[in-house]
Structures are given as C-alpha cells and as structure tokens.
Design brief:
Keywords: Transferase, Tricarboxylic acid cycle
GO molecular function: acyltransferase activity, acyl groups converted into alkyl on transfer
Distance between the termini: 82 Å
Radius of gyration: 26 Å
InterPro entries: Citrate_synth-like_lrg_a-sub, Citrate_synth-like_sm_a-sub, Citrate_synthase, Citrate_synthase_AS, Citrate_synthase_bac-typ, Citrate_synthase_sf
Bound molecules: acetyl coenzyme *A
CATH class of one domain: Mainly Alpha
Helix content: 40-55%
Family: Belongs to the citrate synthase family.
Organism: Pisolithus microcarpus 441
C-alpha cells in the first residue's frame, strides 16, 4: 500500500527539456543520479548574436559556467556521502558518529580505500603493512636539515612528499609507462600490488615525515618508528620520545635502551578519533587538487604534495591555525562583540565558521566538542576556551550568521584541542594532512580503477580579455599605469 510500483517508476521521464531561445530549438537532456551531463550542452549551438564576441564561440556549443565549482559534480564516487542540509557524514555508508565511537583510524582507512569493513586478519595485514612502511631512509635527515630553523612545517611536509616520490622509481608512470596505475582497473595483480605498496608507504610515512618536520625545528634527533603501537600512538611517540642520546634518557638510564615513553592513552585515542573525523570529506578543495593533479598521471607522491599545498590555505585545512590566531587576537570574551562587528563590516574573518556544503551543522563539530572535554580533563582547559565559547554563542545568536547558515565547522574546535595537547600552532595543518592522506589515496585509487579510464581534468574558461590586436612598437605605445596594472616597486632589504 502506498508503494510505487516498478511500472510507475519506469514511467517517469528522467530528462530535462531545454529551449534555446536564440534558435527556438528544443533539447531533451538526460538526468542520471539527479544530474545532467555538462557535455550535452556542447551540442546546443547558435549563430553568433549581435552582442557575442568571437571568443564566446557561440557556434561551437554552450558552455557551463561554475566559478568555484558551486554545483558541478566532477566525479562519480562511492566513498563518502555528505548531506549538508541535514548535517550527515558517512564513510562508505557508515555514519561518522558510529565510526568515531567504535572504529580506529586504520580500520576507517581500510574502509575508505578498499570499500568494506575488514575482517580481523585483513585489518592486521593492513595495519602491519602501513606501520612497517613508516621507516624513512636515513638520507631524509639531510633533507629536513636543509630547511631554515623557522620553516613552516607545512612547507617541509609539502616538499617532503614530492621528495619521497624520488625514492620510488617503480611508482612513477613517467619512468614505467603511463598505464602503471590505470591497468589496475583490469585487475592486473602486479599493478595492484605496486599500487598498494605506495598506499602503505604514503600512510605509513605520513606520521614519520610529520614528526621529522616537528623535531627538526627543535634541534632534536629523529625517532625511528616504534613497533607494537597504534598509528596515533606511534605518531605521538615519534614526536615526543626522547632518543637515547637526548640528555634526559642518557642521564636517567645506564642502559642505552630507549626511554620508557608511552603516549597517554586518552590523548592517543583522542588523536585517533580526530584522525577518523579528518580522514575524508568527499570533493573538498585538497581532494579535488589531488585528483586534478593525479589526472595527468604523475606518481601519487606528487599528487599528495599538491594536496598538501591546497589544504594548507586558511580557507581549508589552515583554518585550525587561523582560529587560534583569531582567538589570540580577540584576547578575551569582552572583546567578542567588537570582533563580530568587524566581521560584519567584512574587515575580519570568523575562522572556523561556515562551510561550502554544511548549511546547518557540521556533524564532526559535535564529536569534537566531546573529545575536547576528554582532552581538557587530562591537560587542563585551554585559556582561550572562554573566548571561543563566547564567540561561538554570540555568533549563533546573531542574525548575520544565522541568516547565512554559518555554523562552527570542525576547525573551530580542533585547534583548541591541539593547543591543549601541546602542539605548536603552525603544526595544526600538519595534523589535518596526516589523516586526510587516506581520503586522498582513496579518491586517487578510485580514479585509477575507473573502468572508463582516467580523463585529464581540463576545465573550460570564459575568455573576457581583449580580442585579437596587433603588436605595438615601443615608440607608438601609451603606457598603462596604476596600482595592479604594472609591476610594483618593492623595497630591497639586506
Ligand atoms: N565569516 C563571516 N562571513 C562568512 C563566513 C565567515 N567565516 N563564511 C561565509 N561567510 C559569508 C560570506 O561573506 C557570504 O556572505 P554574503 O552572501 O553576504 O556575501 C555568505 O556567508 C556565503 O559564504 P560563501 O563565501 O559564499 O561560502 P563558500 O561556500 O564560498 O565558502 C568557506 C566556504 C570558505 C568555508 C567560508 O565559509 C569561510 O571562509 N569560512 C572561514 C574559513 C574556514 O573556517 N574554513 C574551514 C572550512 S572547513 C574545512 O576545510 C575543514
């Protein structure tokens, strides 16, 4: 009763009728998965009108304009689903709330990459391979040593992934042939093995490289990844372990064995959950960048380096760092109204608020609030918490933010947790990159395994520049002057 019969379902005409008023022609555009193919619009052509420029190319087909990808689906994906209106996030169908409560980061990584929750033996195999591949060649010491003492860790990490690619010629389609990874789509076992090895390396070495970027600035020796620890524990160990030649270990123990450092279980689990929450987020800016870069078939290390660069920006993964800088600049709850007034005048940005997809709430922000309390119970609360709460509460009551559907995103709280755990502010985006590598490789692998093959991501543009004009000799030119219209005069220091 009340159920749609299969016949009624088929009776529906899943198409869009478009009339081109320039020509009076009518087109029927197929609708699949509630989307229309942009390529179809290429067939809608018209003779150039009186207002058309030759560069509009009206005779060559209609283009679909979408500045900033506001409503363009660039891929079919089976990995992550977000319902931004209802505040839903699911990895391979599993709600993020359940995964954060019951799963571990490496189990979620398996799920995101291979598509199903693993059997116990499958998970053990995957964990072993990932953790085994954490060790970096000793040469990397020289690489990290070449950075300035105050280099931003993201500059180091971004470069480190491109550098890592130089170790593995067998993972480079430029050297091995461009079907190196795309032949995985045909089930070629050797190709799949090669691909999986790079995946283990990328995830395994992410924490090692991140820890190296952290320790090099402190002038501390690098730590060999430990055995017998979880991913998050291994990361904390590599960050904070005092190596045998560090003064504490050397003086406190007669034996040269490593110091008995063990990450705090509450902090290790909190980091593991934070990693789960950050592992994937469908077509965000950095995943799109990884796919865009990957579409020209470079090695996956180069694609991941591109993803790092994209994530680093304050509108994306750099927002956690920006939130703390913002809270420090606000200073106290009393200054919140003045700050929000400046945001409304568009003089300041309320970092950690707003999202391209979430328009009610970011489900990760509720989970993260809970983790914050657990972490603060161990570390003590962050002194910025009062300002953060005052800002949060005031913004959620203010019509400016409510009417624009601006709610706190994951970055509003994550920075406070990282700060309480003792991470330096500029390390926060690194803590986002480490888990997001899983999402990037899951999307990259899905693209390589696509039965239709990989299409290079080459978008269109709408050209609004000058039409053809002839070269003007120096003596006949009139110089175009003004700010932004000519190269600036810069001050030379030193
Ligand atoms: N503070 C004040 N106003 C904002 C904010 C904000 N944080 N975010 C959006 N708005 C306003 C815009 O000015 C715009 O107002 P208008 O319609 O009057 O011009 C309206 O809300 C719609 O915003 P858009 O800029 O169109 O939203 P978009 O989807 O392009 O941008 C973004 C999303 C980049 C996340 C934006 O909300 C932002 O800059 N937030 C702050 C940075 C941040 O927290 N980034 C982390 C995102 S989550 C992540 O990457 C993990």
């Amino acid at each position: 009763m009340g159920q749609e019969t299969p016949k009624a379902k088929h009776a529906r005409n899943d198409s869009l009728v478009v009339i081109d008023n320039r020509t009076g022609k009518q087109y029927s555009v197929p609708i699949t998965h509630n989307s229309v193919p942009a390529t179809f619009f290429k067939f809608i052509r018209a003779p150039a009108g009186p207002d058309d420029r030759p560069e509009d190319e009206a005779e060559r087909g209609l283009r679909v304009a979408d500045r900033g990808f506001l409503n363009t689906a660039v891929i079919e994906s089976a990995i992550t689903y977000i319902d931004g209106e209802r505040g839903i996030l699911r990895y391979r169908g599993y709600p993020i709330e359940q995964l954060a409560e019951k799963s571990t980061f490496l189990e979620c990584a398996y799920l995101l990459i291979y598509g199903a929750l693993p059997a116990r033996s499958q998970l053990s195999h995957f964990e072993r391979e990932v953790l085994l591949h954490g060790i970096m060649h000793a040469d990397a010491t020289k690489f990290f040593g070449s950075f300035r003492y105050d280099a931003h860790p993201m500059a180091m990490l971004t470069s480190a992934f491109a550098y890592l690619g130089s170790y593995y010629g067998e993972a480079n389609p430029s050297l091995q042939g461009q079907t190196l990874f795309t032949k995985c789509a045909k089930g070629d076992p050797e190709a799949l093995q090669n691909m999986d090895k790079q995946i283990y390396r990328l995830i395994g070495k992410a924490i090692t490289l991140a820890a190296m970027a952290y320790r090099v600035r402190q002038g501390r020796e690098f730590v060999v990844p430990p055995t017998g620890m979880s991913y998050a524990e291994s990361f904390l160990y590599q960050l904070d372990h005092l190596s045998p030649t560090d003064s504490f270990s050397a003086s406190s123990s007669a034996s040269p064995s490593p110091s008995p450092y063990k990450p705090h279980p509450v902090l290790a689990r909190a980091l593991d959950i934070l990693f789960i929450l950050h592992a994937d987020h469908e077509m965000n800016a950095s995943s799109t960048t990884v796919l865009q870069t990957g579409s020209s078939l470079p090695d996956p290390y180069s694609a991941v380096a591109a993803g790092c660069a994209s994530l680093y920006g304050p509108l994306h993964g750099g927002a956690n760092e920006a939130v703390i800088r913002m809270l420090v600049s606000i200073g106290s709850p009393n200054n919140v109204p003045t700050f929000l007034a400046a945001v409304k005048r568009r003089e300041k940005v309320l970092s950690g608020f707003g999202h391209r997809v979430y328009k009610t709430s970011d489900p990760r922000s509720f989970i993260i609030r809970k983790i914050a309390d657990e972490v603060f119970a161990v570390t003590g609360p962050d002194p910025l918490l009062d300002t953060a709460m005052a800002l949060h509460d005031a913004a959620l009551k203010d019509d400016y933010f409510v009417s624009r559907k601006l709610a706190p995103n994951v970055d509003f709280w994550s920075g406070l947790i990282y700060r309480a755990m003792g991470f330096p502010m500029d390390f926060f985006p690194v803590l986002f990159v480490v888990p997001r590598i899983v999402g990037w490789v899951a999307h990259w692998r899905q693209m390589m395994l696509s039965p239709e093959g990989v299409k290079i991501w080459r978008p269109r543009q709408i050209y609004v520049g000058p039409s053809e004009r002839s070269y003007v000799p120096f003596d006949e030119r009139e110089a175009v002057q003004g700010p932004g219209k000519e190269p600036s005069i810069v001050i030379h220091s030193g």
